[in-house]
Amino acid sequence: MKEISCKLAVIGAGPGGYICAIRAGQLGVDTVIIEAVKAGGTCLNVGCIPSKAIIHAADEFFAATHFASDKATLGIKVSDPSIDFAKTIAWKDGIVGRMNSGVAGLLKKAGVKAVVGRARFRDGKTLEVDTETGIQVIRAETIVIATGSAPVELPFMPFGGKVISSTEALSLREVPKALAVVGGGYIGLELGTAFAKLGSKVTVVEALPRILPLYDADLTRPVQKRLDELGVTVMTDVKAKGLSSDGSGLVIERSDESLQTIPADKVLVTVGRKPVTSGWGLDEIDLDKSGPFIRVDDQCRTSMRGIYAIGDVTGEPMLAHRAMAQGEMVAEIIAGKRRSWDKRAIPAVCFTDPEIVSVGLSPDEAKRAGIETKIGLFPFAANGRAMTLQNEGGFVRVIVRADNHLVLGIQGVGAGISELSAAFSLAIEMGARLEDIAGTIHAHPTQSEGFQEAALKALGHALHI
Amino acid sequence: MAEFIIKMPDVGEGVAEAELVEWHVKIGDIVREDAILAAVMTDKATVEIPSPVEGTISWLGAEIGDTVAVGSPIVKIDVSGEVAVEAGGADTPTPNPSPQGGGELSVGPVAAEAPSAPAPSKAETATAKTESPSPLWGGARGGGNTLSASANASAHRPEGERPLASPAVRLRAKEAGIDLRRVHGSGPAGRITHDDLDQFFARGPQQSAPAGKQPDMSVEEIKVVGLRRKIAEKMARSKQRIPHITYVEEVNVDALEDLRARLNAEKRADRPRLTILPFLMRAMVKTIAEQPQINALYDDDAGIIHRHGGVHIGIAAQTPSGLVVPVVRHAEARDLWDCAVEVNRLADAAKSGTATREELSGSTITITSLGAMGGVATTPVINYPEVAIIGVNKIMVRPVWDGAQFVPAKMMNLSSSFDHRVIDGWDAAVFIQRIKALLETPALIFVE
């Protein structure tokens, strides 16, 4: 097969890789992108997008079942709702498929050549791609590694059969009657909540003392409350030991070392993700690592000249939008522009019920950094729009420097609050002060008023509390 | 090469030493005859030392703040003929070259000989007035103000803190290859704006004019010398040794002000305008005759109180260089107009720095007044070793209950401190009450 020579080769067409390739193509860089599976990576195929589709379907179905119960207050009457889960999955697959072809179209439009197959380094300038039609050799001046991450497997409970990862959970043929979730992080809780709403009896098992350990307790409290309302059993300080011998469920060990078997049709293991650093010839080029990740500098350069790495393979936070920003930056660097990583904040969103958003420093982080802070918190219970949406749980919280009111961090928890992340991030990236937020008209009636009110609260003159 | 030595001159009667408060020259400077070399200070008078010769300063014998005995050498001046010969054409070195010779000194050879002498500063310093000893030694002259200059060189930003700028500004800086840490941020919280970048491009890495409030990290070192040191020592000694009792009383000065206005309106042209002070001085003289223990100096080391018959009233005066206390001698022998004339004369002398040492010492009791700035009450510090100080506060029209109604009255407070070791509170109060009575009925001041 004829060798391909190009300026830039990108390994992996996830959010980091495809953005990098599109941007490079826009800038006139001769670019090839190599993807073994489907364009869009984890995010589009088995992560962000399909999970949000399932969560939406679960919310809709749950609303219908709620209307059918005698607890409904809106006066809407529904009798005996049911769900054809295969159809739900097909709808989800339709969205994913549309986006797959959308990404492929964008790459094409940018003049990027896509090669399907598994890439492998031969040396620092040469890749071999195992395609359907044979080995394709690609010689590139510059190579970007965007191989992403994969779910962590428990050695005593490997994926397969009853034991599933998030990938399989998003493609189940039917709603499991009983679902055990190992790991109370955001992925486990997002999916656990969705299946609870779809009718599963869900049990979440977390080894640490509380769920969502990366967020502070104030933020996770409304989520914990909602999980209780949904009938989800949350067990903390508990270790998963493996499937029971008869295969009927998950064996757990409590802190007092007593064992218990939780009946489960499926056991969803969401104990984290690990960078994909094998299977593509890392040994051939011997890059420096930082823990399990590839070490990169503030321009995403690896220890080898001409080789960059972006996205989950380079470390935490493993978030699609971080990878996209890195990909864009690297493409511009390769095109000869001066760039370096100078972002002040990477927002993190948890699509639990209610949703959690965190941008910048939390109160504890600010304290640990030795910064004297002021904090303003506004509860959605005092927000008109939240009431009309029956979403009164949660709050917006603003953390600022006490001396000059520079916004350091913004967090919020509440239904639909993920959309407020734009305002939160913009405030921090623009270097807003409390007065800037307080002095901006926020449309009424929206939940975004909570943001302004939190700033006013920190200034000492909130109007609605 | 001849060397001319200048010794500390005898600056006043009985003065054995003087404090050097200001150098007007430094080593290497070229000086002309009569150029001011230094300022020294005795008790409270500052004396300038002129150069009797012209030449190059080769040695300075004291630092600012040093106390130098009269007769000690303080300056050596090279009056070497080389300069004079080359410039003026004189045949032999002369210890006292003619003014013409000096006038012909060209800058060229001088600069070559003494490269450390910044010629421009010489002319400035030679003509500088000495009445206010400069608190900044060296740094104020010769362009040595490096501390504040370097503090301004870069934008203030706490160590390790990332520059604050919007993504668009960051991008522009990045593309121009500018490290934003070097750019001053004029926006809120030190945010770097597009305008700040424009300024940076236009002017380079200098300080752009900060718009917002800026923390000032500079610390200026000011040597406490000269008059300031004397004031500091005297105040400290007074407060350390004397247990002050401060007594504040209000005085209705309606009648006094009427009288004063009348006297000022009808006064002879050669007489000064009267202030409250001469009346107060006369009232004090009258009261001291009844209570002589108030007009005294307490030598607490010897344990002796010197009660003075003469009433020498010190008048605390603010001058550009600090507080001085010129003294109206023998107020008991002066009438109202005499007192006024003498107060005016001394105040002018103190402010222009021409008051003599004798005029600035020897008081037995002191008056302190902040004049129009006034204030409601003060806690005056006794002019050690005196035993009393009378503080005059501002006259204000206040409502006063006359027994039937409130009426407007011109009221003035007297805030006075006494040495409680030798003046009992009762006596202090009696003294002030007596003065109050005299001032409220001013005719009594003049009744013999």
* Separation of the first and last Cα atoms of chain A: 71 Å
> Helix content range of the residues of chain A, please?
25-40%
CATH superfamily of the largest domain in chain B: Chloramphenicol acetyltransferase-like domain
CATH topology of the largest domain in chain A: FAD/NAD(P)-binding domain
Strand order of the largest sheet of chain B: 9-18-17-16-12-15
Query: Can you tell me the overall shape of chain A?
Result: globular
What does this structure look like?
Chain A: GO terms for molecular function: dihydrolipoyl dehydrogenase (NADH) activity. The complex is a heterodimer of chains A (465) and B (448). Chain A is α/β, with parallel strands linked by helices. Chain A has 3 domains: 4-53 and 86-151 and 274-334, 3-Layer(bba) Sandwich (FAD/NAD(P)-binding domain); 163-271, FAD/NAD(P)-binding domain (3-Layer(bba) Sandwich); 348-459, Enolase-like, domain 1 (2-Layer Sandwich), CATH 3.30.390.30. Helices cover 32% and strands 26% of the residues of chain A. Chain A has 14 helices and 24 strands. Chain A has helices at residues 15-26, 41-46, 48-68, 85-109, 166-169, 186-197, 217-229, 282-285, 320-334, 363-368, 384-388, 421-429, 434-438, 449-459; strands spanning 4-11, 31-35, 113-116, 118-123, 126-131, 134-145, 149-151, 163-164, 178-182, 201-205, 233-235, 239-243, 249-253, 259-263, 266-269, 273-275, 289-290, 293-294, 307-309, 348-350, 355-360, 373-379, 395-401, 407-414. In chain A, the strands form 6 sheets. In chain A, strands 1, 2, 3, 4, 5, 6 and 19 form a 7-stranded mixed β-sheet that branches. In chain A, β13 (249-253) and β14 form a beta hairpin. In chain A, α1 runs parallel beside α4. The radius of gyration of chain A is 24 Å and the shape is globular. The termini of chain A are far apart. The mean pLDDT of chain A is 95. Chain B has 3 domains: 3-127, RNA polymerase II/Efflux pump adaptor protein, barrel-sandwich hybrid domain (OB fold (Dihydrolipoamide Acetyltransferase, E2P), Beta Barrel), CATH 2.40.50.100; 134-223, E3-binding domain (Dihydrolipoamide Transferase); 226-446, Chloramphenicol acetyltransferase-like domain (Chloramphenicol Acetyltransferase, 2-Layer Sandwich), CATH 3.30.559.10. Chain B has 448 residues and is an alpha+beta fold. The radius of gyration of chain B is 30 Å and the shape is extended. The A-B interface holds A 337-340, 342, 344, 401, 404-406, 429-431, 433, 435-436 and B 162, 164-167, 170, 174-175, 177, 187-191.
